[in-house]
Amino acid sequence: MIPVNRSEFYGDDTRWFVGRVISVNDPLEMGRVKVRIVGIHDNPEITVGDLPWAQVVIPITEGGSSGLGASTGIREQAQVFGIFLDGLHSQLPLVFGSMPKYENEITYEESSPFQAPAAGTSAIDPAVNRNTIPPDRVDVELLFGNTNIERSYNFLITKEGGNLTEIAASAVIGNFCQESDVRTNKGDLNPLATVNPGSFGIGQWNSSSSGGNRLGGLQSFAASINLSYTTLYAQLLWTRKELYTLPYYGFAELKSAKTIEEATLIFMRKYIRPTYEYDEYGKIKGEDRRFRRKAQEERIDFAFEIYRKFNT
């Protein structure tokens, strides 16, 4: 037992943590990182700005003084281990190092080098009359890319797709990867996916009247522009229409998001609105039981993978 008169000393109430690095952009350039710590910062409403800066232990081979030594090299999304210097107050995190982890890998068919369209341009060739294109050729003819993920990314960063930032586009597709279960489609988005009962497409839009019959909305919208609702192109246009016309789907917040995790969680909570994740006792998982959603971490992992593929 720790004597009462020593309980405030460093090391007497050691508390360790595991977390995910969210930001490495230390304004003081001291190598600090922002970490979303498991069990403390699980609530998605805790923004990046709310997270404390964590110092990082460096090897004794480095200078350790101002202007001397190398940077830490830790990157965003790394899983790290550390302790709190202030014990149970848990406001002064210190990172000891990173920990290997398994990440969902999206597999892609071999394709030509990625070439993004110019910012603000259309993903469609204006000279193409889409009414003359067979339904099974719509996505190939009207979208730019060699896979559905690449076509979706290229579409979303164009004016036609909403001029999303690279971060927001990756977040949207990361959610769609989880919704349409890319693992069952060779790692690619599947516009024909029927993962959940009564749901369809990359966004698993549902026909439930309590949910607004968004699948029916997709079908009617696609018919009104002479497209099949089963095409990726129609589903991307429907996504843009919902985001543009219904503010509560979070379009403004999505475009202003500064990190992959922030953007992914905004799109998940505002647009996808998946069910909560329950434990074996039927209780919603997470420290704040109101906010833990189905496959939340997987969505973020997918989004990071997509961002790295198209921005490195």
Q: Would you mind describing this structure in some detail?
A:
The protein is an alpha+beta fold and 312 residues long. It folds into 2 domains: 4-99, Beta Barrel (OB fold (Dihydrolipoamide Acetyltransferase, E2P)); 130-310, Lysozyme, CATH 1.10.530. It contains 8 helices and 7 strands. The protein has helices spanning 138-142, 148-156, 166-179, 214-224, 232-245, 251-256, 260-272, 296-310, and strands spanning 16-23, 33-37, 53-56, 79-84, 93-99, 199-200, 205-206. The strands form 2 sheets. It has a 5-stranded mixed beta barrel. The chain has a two-stranded antiparallel sheet with strand order 6-7. Helix 3 (166-179) crosses helix 7. The radius of gyration is 22 Å and the shape is elongated. 34% of the residues are buried.
At a glance:
The protein has helices at 138-142, 148-156, 166-179, 214-224, 232-245, 251-256, 260-272, 296-310, and strands spanning 16-23, 33-37, 53-56, 79-84, 93-99, 199-200, 205-206. It folds into 2 domains: 4-99, OB fold (Dihydrolipoamide Acetyltransferase, E2P); 130-310, Lysozyme, CATH 1.10.530.10.
